[in-house]
Amino acid sequence: MRGFYIGRFQPYHNGHHQMVKEIATEVDELVLGIGSAGDSHSTRNPFTAGERIMMVAKSVVDFDITTYAVPIEDLERNSVWVSHVQSMSPAFDVAYSNNPLVIQLFKEAGVEVRQSPMFNRGVLQGTELRNRMMNGEEWRSLVPEPVVGVIDEIGGIERIQRVSDTDSDGRDSDGGPDPE
Amino acid sequence: MRGFYIGRFQPYHNGHHQMVKEIATEVDELVLGIGSAGDSHSTRNPFTAGERIMMVAKSVVDFDITTYAVPIEDLERNSVWVSHVQSMSPAFDVAYSNNPLVIQLFKEAGVEVRQSPMFNRGVLQGTELRNRMMNGEEWRSLVPEPVVGVIDEIGGIERIQRVSDTDSDGRDSDGGPDPE
Amino acid sequence: MRGFYIGRFQPYHNGHHQMVKEIATEVDELVLGIGSAGDSHSTRNPFTAGERIMMVAKSVVDFDITTYAVPIEDLERNSVWVSHVQSMSPAFDVAYSNNPLVIQLFKEAGVEVRQSPMFNRGVLQGTELRNRMMNGEEWRSLVPEPVVGVIDEIGGIERIQRVSDTDSDGRDSDGGPDPE
Amino acid sequence: MRGFYIGRFQPYHNGHHQMVKEIATEVDELVLGIGSAGDSHSTRNPFTAGERIMMVAKSVVDFDITTYAVPIEDLERNSVWVSHVQSMSPAFDVAYSNNPLVIQLFKEAGVEVRQSPMFNRGVLQGTELRNRMMNGEEWRSLVPEPVVGVIDEIGGIERIQRVSDTDSDGRDSDGGPDPE
Amino acid sequence: MRGFYIGRFQPYHNGHHQMVKEIATEVDELVLGIGSAGDSHSTRNPFTAGERIMMVAKSVVDFDITTYAVPIEDLERNSVWVSHVQSMSPAFDVAYSNNPLVIQLFKEAGVEVRQSPMFNRGVLQGTELRNRMMNGEEWRSLVPEPVVGVIDEIGGIERIQRVSDTDSDGRDSDGGPDPE
Amino acid sequence: MRGFYIGRFQPYHNGHHQMVKEIATEVDELVLGIGSAGDSHSTRNPFTAGERIMMVAKSVVDFDITTYAVPIEDLERNSVWVSHVQSMSPAFDVAYSNNPLVIQLFKEAGVEVRQSPMFNRGVLQGTELRNRMMNGEEWRSLVPEPVVGVIDEIGGIERIQRVSDTDSDGRDSDGGPDPE
């Protein structure tokens, strides 16, 4: 029995970690899909896929179940998204998500989806976390211990603060440098 | 004499249908270009190109002129858009549009464009229609009969309501699943 | 009952036409998927999607079944090809093909595929036809009447002869102009 | 000693020109990277890369240093942007920018970046300039003489006014025609 | 000390496995980059990225070092390949490769590369292995035990035999279905 | 009167240089389009666009006419190639080419094309030149003086010799690293 749980993990935090713990009681193996894998260095997506793999892998290393951290690049085409995910991931029996679009796409493709009100907490914490990082506020208590190490090692706080300067100018750093 | 009329047709509605009727008095054949053909499962673009082909083809079947429903994928590059359209469509003599960008691009390429104030009504009805679908309000009287059948058969209302849940979270489902 | 039959139709010829006739005895509606829709002006793919839509639509106009000519652009990714086709085409119940890769992909996706030894004749005739065009030999008797008209109108023979000059230099015109 | 200075140059104006003059005192050769080179015919990016090359090249022709105007297409992926720029541009020793994201990316790649408060003036003038063009106000005094000639020759004012009609409808013309 | 070793792993075989064993004596952690991750269902690339992750992960599970199996999609642009790899992979100190192009690209980017004549054996065995699979000959003794399980479970032999039928027709199944 | 002459310039050599001299007698300004601008580090395309801009710009600096060296990235779609070139290049009145595909595309778009038997010499010399470089034979006498400087400075001979090792293995380095 293998499960699939997708997130952008920008960064991987305690909300995600709690969900993985719950899912771990239902499956033998778990694939953690790292969404928008090609995006980085933006306010919304500060960390690279490689950095996020580190965060996830170091955090789940002591769990009893086997885990896979798999980057999933965006194809920008909802209609083939499920096939794309299925080709990039080890085969899975059930998907875990609270995202309505993800749920809809999996359901139309005949994949079982499980959701829970608890899963929403992660969504809220992601934006909150990045805002704290940008504003120089406390964020370390909201992520698993190994994530602190990864972010510090790569100078992640300095990075997100720099790129948020870009955004405050009214422009979106998700699409690559776009100087006036 | 062949005309070209492009729309996203999300969905094909009475405003579009009225325009096609008017154009039909001026041309022998009409190409209906289905724009943003690769987009689907979003608030703004709920239906796939295949579903929209069905809506259009079933609705125009009794017109006296020959019609072609041709999906046009976005190339994200205005400067080659006219060439792209011309390669995907049967050759046409005149384009019908009220969209200023479309008009500008065709004019720069030396293609005759015809417009009319009436054409604008379709724009307004498209957003209105999707809002009604999302809110569970009456929409069936605003589209040709065959469109109702297509949307019901694919579970279109449930789909647009689900993906609009995603959007209300402040995120855009046009670019593919992007879970927090 | 709707069927799907995909080909590059470079050009649409008597072999394709015979197949469509056979399929027409089994289905009520038939989608003709025009593969590699973005390719044109090469030895292997001389005609644009728009030109091929014309060839197909004019040729099948007198058949009793309803037909749809739908361009399918390449995504260069086998694993999502079936989903891509399904999003671009009106929904279909059965696919017709003799191409082993197409058969394999549809089967893995759980789509019924029907094949027949007869279908292979089209493959042979496509290459043969283009060779005849390039060499200035007789080709008109191998295609439906309306296809002759389309090719003559667009100067198709001159085009394929010109681009085959490029290829004889050892280069592939499929990927766009690539002058030394 | 060769410098690199990137801008979208929509259009190239006196703010840019002043910066180039200052940079010219520090380097022997200067590469002017024309960002978002594939974008055109939108409110934010009205002019094509070719038109912008003309503006830049005609304006800097009398400077003592050697200059290169090099279009840089967006790759939509911040993590490879520096490598992309380096492959498209003649090799450079120092980059000039006041854009925080550009600075961050060059720094992570170990490229020296120089900035100055003065450089910001260009940012402000770009938006202001396009607004004046859209509103039919005075803009000619804000750009070098040759830029006026380029814009007049291509009918640039009519173009930006037309495409801004599109945008006022709440839609973004950056991604190509997207008619309702 | 973390190493990076890239291969297409179509499939992961004893030659690869021997290399990983050797590299494991030199590093603490090893990233196994799964190249051409988007390709599958072709003679040269029969297996999906997800299937290859399974092969690799199941085979290296008993090694003493920490390993990461990371799919790397092709960007089709040599000049940004190193940056792409670096963004997708956990940070590494040394790359292992015997591929001259890979070596050249890493060297130009200032990344240490280690090679060994032994590494070549994998290259030879990959083609040989796939040929054996296509011809129905013995292949199970050339791959680690868990790889046999993965290939059997997905019907891998039937798949490669089917898609090689396509190729024998002179066409390349790497670029997606391309029926005549 | 402005002309457009496109080549891959891998590298820019005496054959190209002779052509530019001839064209210079017919036009006031000349755009040198650097084709396949995104390709590099392969046997067929060893040099980056930036390196080729340097070769061209340094070589034509003493000509009396104004020249522009403009990289043109491949769009892989013949039908929009002319529009793409026109958007990337300063406007031109006449195109110079001996490539049959290029001639065909410009003619279909209504652009004047001039050709001459002399122009072919460049084609032959390009392949010959790269073969000499790969084999360690004399090549310096076949290129303008500044090109020797550029190639030596970037270690171009070592690069092409390394990547040709890759190719001798039967694989194509044009599409990015693809290790077995």
Annotation keywords:
homohexamer, 180 residues, alpha/beta, Rossmann fold, 5-stranded parallel β-sheet, 43% helix, cytoplasm (chains A, B, C, D, E, F)
Which second-level CATH architecture of chain A applies? 3-Layer(aba) Sandwich
Seen as an oligomer or otherwise, the chain set is: homohexamer
User: How would you state the average pLDDT of chain A, rounded?
Assistant: 91
Instruction: State the total count of DSSP E strands of chain A.
Output: 5
Summed up, the helix count of chain A is: 7
How many domain regions of chain A? Answer: 1
Shape of chain A: globular
How can the largest sheet of chain A be summarized? 5 strands, parallel
Given the helix and strand composition of chain A, which structural class is it?
A: alpha/beta
Q: Mind telling me the CATH class of chain A? A: Alpha Beta
- Biggest sheet strand order of chain A reads 3-2-1-4-5
The greatest interface here is: B-C, 23 and 23 residues
As a whole number of angstroms, the C-alpha radius of gyration of chain A is: 16 Å
CATH homologous superfamily label of chain A: HUPs
Beta-strand content estimate of chain A: 5-15%
- In CATH, the topology of chain A is named Rossmann fold
State the order of secondary-structure elements of chain A, H for helix, E for strand: EHEHEHEHEHHH
Low-confidence stretches of chain A: none
Enzyme class (chains A, B, C, D, E, F): transferase
Family (chains A, B, C, D, E, F): Belongs to the archaeal NMN adenylyltransferase family.
EC number (chains A, B, C, D, E, F): 2.7.7.1
InterPro entries (chains A, B, C, D, E, F): Cyt_trans-like, NMN_Atrans_arc, Rossmann-like_a/b/a_fold
